[in-house]
């Protein structure tokens, strides 16, 4: 595991423990942009690398992600070790969001936020949503409309009571829109952060 990368606003309303996707770590451009945007909404962001990613950073030898139970164990340990001075939310990009969603039963987690949820592998029909019917808290998903891991048309036919999906115009799995839209990845990451902030507000208000 890595040391936590902490982005702290002056007056934080909540803390988001944020995991990376399968191929790029906590210091990737996407994760840095997302943390910076969340900071503007008074969300304190704690980023970390899973152990397999930290090994790659340390040695330069790339490997496949660890199996889901081990990733869950690593994430859960960090949740347990988080102080209780702020309301805690768990989340992540792609695989990190999937792992976070599997920890919804943790008593310290108020809700989960996923950025580009991997509903299924591209061009595969094996869905990764079997646990959605057993979620213990809200799952908020910021998803690009063109995401090959689950696009707007595919998800429209699904219904999970605890899941809210916010669609980002023309975004792919990395929230990149096509040039013809006039939008940029930065625009969509900013919108995803705004959605995350609104979702946190909703949960905090409901728990007052």
TrEMBL record:
Keywords: Hydrolase. Residues 13-200 form the KANL3/Tex30 alpha/beta hydrolase-like domain. GO terms for molecular function: hydrolase activity. The keyword Hydrolase applies. This is Alpha/beta fold hydrolase. It comes from Rheinheimera aquimaris.
């Amino acid at each position: 595991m890595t040391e936590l990368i902490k982005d702290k606003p002056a007056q934080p309303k909540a803390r988001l423990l944020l995991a990376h996707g399968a191929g790029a770590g906590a210091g990737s451009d996407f994760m840095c942009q997302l943390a910076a945007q969340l900071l503007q909404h008074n969300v304190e962001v704690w980023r970390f690398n899973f152990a397999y990613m930290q090994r790659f950073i340390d040695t330069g030898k790339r490997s496949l992600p660890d199996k889901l139970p081990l990733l869950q164990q690593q994430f859960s340990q960090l949740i347990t070790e988080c102080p209780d001075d702020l309301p805690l939310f768990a989340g992540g990009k792609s695989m990190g969001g999937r792992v976070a969603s599997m920890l919804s039963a943790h008593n310290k987690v108020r809700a989960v936020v996923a950025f580009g949820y991997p509903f299924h592998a591209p061009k595969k029909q094996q869905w990764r949503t079997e646990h959605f019917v057993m979620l213990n808290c809200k799952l908020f998903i910021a998803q690009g409309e063109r995401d090959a891991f689950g696009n707007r048309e595919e998800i429209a036919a699904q219904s999970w009571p605890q899941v809210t999906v916010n669609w980002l115009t023309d975004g792919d799995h990395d929230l990149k829109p096509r040039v013809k839209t006039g939008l940029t990845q930065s625009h969509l990451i900013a919108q995803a952060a705004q959605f995350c902030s609104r979702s946190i507000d909703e949960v905090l208000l409901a728990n007052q």
